Known about the structure:
By secondary structure, this protein is an alpha/beta fold. The chain has helices at residues 15-34, 37-59, 181-187, 189-198, 221-227, 265-286, 318-330, 346-354, 370-377, 399-407, 421-429; strands at residues 2-3, 10-13, 63-71, 74-76, 80-90, 97-101, 112-115, 126-133, 138-142, 145-150, 156-162, 166-171, 205-209, 231-235, 242-247, 290-294, 361-365, 386-391, 411-415, 441-442, 449-450. The strands form 6 sheets. A 5-stranded antiparallel sheet has the order 2-11-10-6-7. The protein has a 5-stranded parallel sheet with strand order 16-15-17-18-19, sandwiched between helices. The chain has a 4-stranded antiparallel sheet with strand order 1-3-5-8, with no helix packed on it. Helix 1 runs antiparallel to helix 2 (37-59), helix 6 runs antiparallel to helix 7 and helix 9 packs parallel to helix 10 (399-407). The protein is elongated and about 125 Å long.
Amino acid sequence: xxxxxxxDWRGTLTPRGWGFVVAAAVALMAxxxxxxxxxxxxxxxxxxxxxxxxxASLLVRPSMTVVRRPRPEVVEAGQSxxxxxxxxxxxxxxxxxxxxxxLPASLGTGPTFVYPGASIGRDGASNYRYELGCPRRGLYWxxxxxxxxxxxxxxxxxxxxxxxxxxxxxxxxxxxxxAAALSGLRGAEGIIAARIQSVPSEDDVMTREYRHGDPMRxxxxxxxxxxxxxxxxxxxxAVSPEATIVMDLRGTAFPDAxxxxxxxxxxxxxxWAVSAVMSVAAHLSELGYSxxxxxxxxxxxxxxxxxxxxxxxxxxxxxxxxxxxxxGLAAIAPAEPTQNPAGFSDPLLDRLEGxxxxxxxxxxxxxxTAEQARELASASGFAERALAVVVAPRAGSSRAAxxxxxxxxxxxxxxxxxxxxxxxxxALTAExxxxxxxxxxxxxxxxxxxxx
Length: 452
């Protein structure tokens, strides 16, 4: 909400007002030709009426207060949100005002309504509601409201933009992925770990020597009798499974995809990659994994997003964590080619090695050469399962990178913007699918074929 009593006011004459001006000019010419003083007076009157209406429209204007509330403020792509708009004025207001909500071009044309409206609250504000469809992910700013007000005689009108803009976050939609081998591999460990931590069994109890300051209630008397010295309980902390998602944000991997208004194949490939990251994150979160999102430079992937609520978060857990990931992916874009390395850095490999065997590694990559793929290849030894999807604008253009990853032990597949994400994931995770044979499956429309 923002109150802007005087902002961006522009006045102009209406066609009726210009008619008065033309009539005044005709009367003035007639007065000169005919030498009649009464026509001169008529000309002055006809000119002063629209001029007075224009001056009045610029000087006499109400202060407007605009309150806008999207519900919800964070919406998934493909869904809609209901926007509640409340307008109230103070000061002199003659007649009615035509209002138009300003929207980004990608969200369509804003609704038009009349102020004061039919629904007026106890505070005197006019209330309006409209549905807003959100077809694509992104960070959008709704508003301000453009007002058009004319004088009671319709001779002059003024346009103004009142109120502030309101932020609307549209997150990528998660595609339901089929249950696969990961469900049996690590999916139940999150639940088991939670039970062990809440009710530790005798098998989880370890002992160590007593240290000064240890509470006596932790003394393990049976172990003390066996060792002949004071021993204390040390409950082993069960480790919760963790999945790492490497999101390719290199500018060279998706050239031109981050430019405003880009609609080409590179942009489509990056949107497919973002949707894949969101879908994989939702799938692994349901299996009980805590999630880490890294980028090729070794940093936190969501730290590069202007929509991330917690850009410095290292791990995301549960539904709340998944919601934070979705918001962070809303405005994420590839970096400029000069702002990050073309390959995969040592800090990334160090961070992957630091969480050795804590859970799977899933890499969603863009345009990658075979040499760059070999830089990431060694990470396959840091996890029980390493999965990679290489997204390319055209089928076959990243085949060398896929082969390099497979040779190093990755389960890798190539995808295009037309590939079925469910089929790619099923091929990567199914135990009975041999990706080494290079089987090709058709996309959702039976068109372009992917190596997945």
